Amino acid sequence: MYLTRFRFNTARSDARRLLSSPQSMHAAVMSSFPQILPTAAPAPRVLWRTDRNASAEVLLFLVGPFRPDLTHLVEQAGWPAAAASGTPGWQTFHYAPFLDRLDKGGTWGFRLTANPVHSVRNVDGAPTKRTAHLTPRHQVQWLLQRQEAGGFKVLPKPEDKQLTDHGDEHQVIVTDQRGMDFGKQGAKGRVTIKAVTYDGRLEVTDPDALRSLLTSGLGKAKAYGCGLMTLAPLG
Fold it and tell me: What is the DSSP pairing of strand 107-114 with strand 229-232?
């Protein structure tokens, strides 16, 4: 497995076009893996996420089974001149050595963009309908309900640091949420997705389960930039 980071040049129109279209971004991401043919079914899992840290600092993170070639992204939406000076224009790391170092009880900072949804039935007897969680409280609860199976535990917040009597017991916040609404070729109606970004701190409870989550993703809409969790040392 490989973890890759690419920085967009947001002054370029193609960068803005990709960032505004989850379908175009998905196609660009999959084009980074020449080993994966368009006809491959099922295709190997590729996860991606965009981190919009500032207007001029937008990063693409990729996790996939092969080393990607992002030359087309550099040419369309990066810095080709800088890349020509000796760097490819992106950074790729072997992911397995990091994953192998995950131990039970270890603590990490994490970032996750996911699509927290639940099923509701508006009328008795009618089929259930998948609906996005809209409030940070319910979005955090969605994540907490998946932590045990995911091999991690969100660290508790000291009582004197909690801002409310209920719903602020954990070291995790929703830092961003974006709605996506687009038509999909070959599908009826439009696709609507709520992408929610979490930042927090966790403890590893089951290293194998967490390794699986980090490489296979969490939740729905993985093709459109949801499901990828990354870890960082606690400062």
Answer: antiparallel
Q: What are phi and psi of 223, to 5 degrees?
A: -65, -15
Amino acid identity for residue 204 in this structure: V
The C-alpha atoms of residue 208 and residue 138 are separated, in whole angstroms, by: 27
Residue 122 DSSP SS3 = coil
The CA dihedral of 202, 4, 55, 225, to the nearest 10 degrees, is -70
Cα separation of 170 and 190, whole Å?
35
Alpha-helical regions (H) of 31-174: 71-77, 80-83, 96-100, 136-144
Are the C-beta atoms of 98 and 215 separated by less than 8 Å? no
Tokens of 209: 């389960």
Indicate the pTM of the whole model.
0.90
Q: How confident is the model at residue 231 (pLDDT cuts 50, 70, 90)?
A: very high
Contacts of 43 (CB under 8 A, 6+ apart): 30, 36
String of DSSP letters for 199-234: EEEEEES-HHHHHHHHHH-SSS-GGGT-S-EEEE--
Q: CA dihedral in degrees (112, 220, 153, 216; nearest 10)?
A: -80
